[in-house]
Amino acid sequence: MKRLIVLGIAVSVILVAAFAGITVYDEYMRFGRMWETPAIRPHETPLLVMGKESIPVDGGEAVLRARGAENLETPDRDRSMKRVFAGKAAYTRYCIHCHGKDLEGHGTVGQSFSAPAMDLKSPQIQDQKDGLLFSSISYGKNRMPTLATTVSVSERWDVIVYLRAAAANQTLAGR
Ligand code: HEC
Questions:
Q1: 166 lines ligand 1 (CB under 6 A)
Q2: For the residues 74-87, what does the mean pLDDT come to?
């Protein structure tokens, strides 16, 4: 019985000592356990101030569409070879797999369409105004996919300049 009491006291002393040790460690030591962590609350640091003109207030796809893209004109008169080649580069990136390297509509992908992708040099296309071509490229037509979110506005105009030049000058088509 006596042994049991001694054992009980010993265990109690050990537990109290351990508790005291942990408390002292937490309260007074530099690296206490993480009972409290610095809370980073929203908006404690001032928000970054946005530079002027960060948010566009005009232009954009919705405006183009609302204005009736088919009524648009190519917005500048630049028909230089530099522009034509920029258009060709965009054509090569975005259109060639359907409309083909000679614009005739027999690209690897285009020929599997029924009806196949258009011959872009044909009068049927070339007789259309720039705005109408812009609209077909941007918002699709029949099976022609919508490319407004893929091809930038300026690249679309570049491509149209290239299509005109390539129809007028066969050597520009092809590679
Ligand atoms: C995924 C294949 C595909 C891609 C990519 C594609 N086209 Fe087409 N396009 C077609 C098909 C198919 C048609 C025929 C649409 C129809 O009448 O069904 C077509 C039709 C057209 C037309 C004629 C629309 C009309 O008046 O009937 C134009 C112009 C045109 N594409 C331009 C382009 C240009 C420029 C690009 C690149 C920026 C491009 N396409 C990319 C498949 C494609």
A1: no
A2: 93
